[in-house]
Amino acid sequence: MEDAVSQLLENREDISQYGIARFFTEYFNSVRQGTHILFREFSFIQATPHNRASFLRTFWRCFRAVGKNGDLLTVKEYHCLLQLLCPDFPMELTQKAARIVLMDDAMDCLMSFSDFLFAFQIQFYYSEFLESVAAIYQDLLTGKNPNTVIVPTSSSGQHRSRLAPSECSPLDGVEASLFYHCLESLCDRSKYSCPPSALVKEVLSSVQRLTFYGFLMALAKHHGINRALGALPDKGDLLLDPPMDQELEKLLSQVSGLSISTPAGSSGDIANLPTRTSPRISSPWKPLHHRQKVNTESDGSTDETESSEN
């Protein structure tokens, strides 16, 4: 009897160890695939660069049908989609991403999926970096040089570096070369994720002056920055996802192949139900409120977004 109990306890221990090993195997597979962030709290999905990239990739894969159909959505509707994956996703972050697209337009304007997605990628993945960029931009706009070191003396105010009043117009933005000089230092010392400084230089070297949101839009449109981040495909391939399409085709074929059997002795009502003649099922995504369709073969401009500023 004692031998049988001992053997049972040993087997239970083996089963327990197997269960733990299986749990960790499945979990780390989900981490590798990027699905571990599904339905997790916001503090978790933003905790690491990998989690952020996984969330971006999951959001794209789950809702790319919006882009396929050409639907234009408001910031509140995009926020609802984000909350389907992360229930406590903050509205403020969604609004910041929308502001990159809409700039000076009203926040209730409609946006295409691709415009919002790439702007959201920059705002979400580089959120801490952008907060520092905003502070630097504001300092430059008001005439301060963020890189100037002030020695605390009675005449320290005389050593502050100021820009001419004509250079401080919010409409004109700031000088691109000076802006890059400050951002280069920020990228070198920042402990958070930053875009590659060489690509930031490439963005800023093409203009003489630019605004804060003009800079963010340029980052969102830049193919090199998107590839360096590695979460989303190029805009031309945004609506393509062959692995997901194959899984959907398998699922649809299984659903379409289901037959309804009639139990013996039952009436013929069930047998007379209409059957599907096509193995394909129409997409559940329909144009919302009969909104304007967009051309999915966009050249990367923001013309898709209703009333958005180029």
TrEMBL record:
Q: Which domain of life is it from?
A: Eukaryota
Region entry Disordered, spans: 263-310
Q: Name one GO cellular component term.
A: centriolar satellite
Record keyword Cell cycle present: no
Q: Name the principal localization, coarsely classed.
A: cytoplasm
Where is the sequence biased in composition, kind Acidic residues?
Answer: 300-310
Q: Which UniProt keywords apply?
A: Cytoplasm, Cytoskeleton, Microtubule, Phosphoprotein
Subcellular localization, per the record? Cytoplasm, Cytoskeleton, Microtubule organizing center, Centrosome, Centriolar satellite
Keyword Transmembrane helix included in the entry's annotation: no
InterPro entries per the UniProt record, alphabetical: CSTPP1 (IPR038968)
Tell me its family.
Belongs to the CSTPP1 family.
State its role.
Regulator of the tubulin polyglutamylase complex (TPGC) that controls cytoskeletal organization, nuclear shape, and cilium disassembly by balancing microtubule and actin assembly. Regulates the assembly and stability of the TPGC and thereby modulates polyglutamylation of the microtubule, which antagonizes MAP4 binding.
Protein name listed in UniProt: Centriolar satellite-associated tubulin polyglutamylase complex regulator 1
Q: Which gene encodes it?
A: CSTPP1
